[in-house]
Amino acid sequence: MSAPRQRLTVKEVERYRVEGFVQPVAIIDFHDAVRLRHAAAEHIAGLVPTERYELTDEVKVRRIEAGDGTVTYEYVDEQPTEPHTLPFLFNIWRLDSRFRAIALDPRIGFMAKQLLGCDEVLLMEDNVVAKAPGAGVVPWHQDLSYWPIEDPAVVTVWIALDDIHAANGAMTVVPGSHRTVEHLPVQFRDAATFMAEHRPGVPTLTQDPGSAGHPVVAYRTRAGEGGFHHPLLWHGSTPNGSRAMRSAYVLRYIAAGTAWLGSSRVPYDDLGCVTGAPVTSDHLPRVPTDT
Ligand SMILES: O=C(O)CCC(=O)C(=O)O
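That is the input. Now the predicted structure with 2-oxoglutaric acid docked in place:
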């Protein structure tokens, strides 16, 4: 693999604008990818305490109306399932300095800034998406549907911690689909939509874009390589038909100053940012971008 990149080229930035994603890009060193792969395995095995759950857990959302008419949403806690096929490690940067060092790497911050076109970049969240042998698809979705913002001022950096291709859980994307409207979020267990009653008129995303006439591209990435994608891009991933775990480290960077809607839009951690106010480094860590 070539050395990790310091920046994206003008052509790559242009491709991101037109297609809504750019890949493959050498994002971290192969040895760092292997280190994070082992770190993720420790968390999944329960050797390190983590906020981890099964991505395919059932999702239910409750609407709460306060006395003053303010509406917020929260997740109805079902019995959490022990991660076994699709562990999801949320905000692992908060617990593990091995992940934090990558999440706050100025090179990655700089590339996120190139795509966001903003002055200041904040780390919104990170996660490890691990697919055990036999894990099924991640259904087609747009990330924005799950987030407490309306402006698509976030870029995702998806980093393969293993060599990942169509046979073991590749990211699949529909080029240009970031230019469509927002669709309803889907449950990762069965692709059923949720929040339809709270978002009237918001359409359902097709679960078979190929048959609907859309081009589908599968990432092919070596460990340490990855891609950048737009929050409205239609994407998912293929099943893991191999005999080995497949892990990806996923970072979400937001432009400072984006209006934060919090649980008035979707259940999310309380960052202490007032509904409608700009999110700043008082709420989320500032990512260095000086390379
Ligand atoms: O890694 C995967 O299987 C899916 C990742 C994903 O949906 C994302 O990065 O937004």
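The first strand starts at residue 21 and ends at 26.
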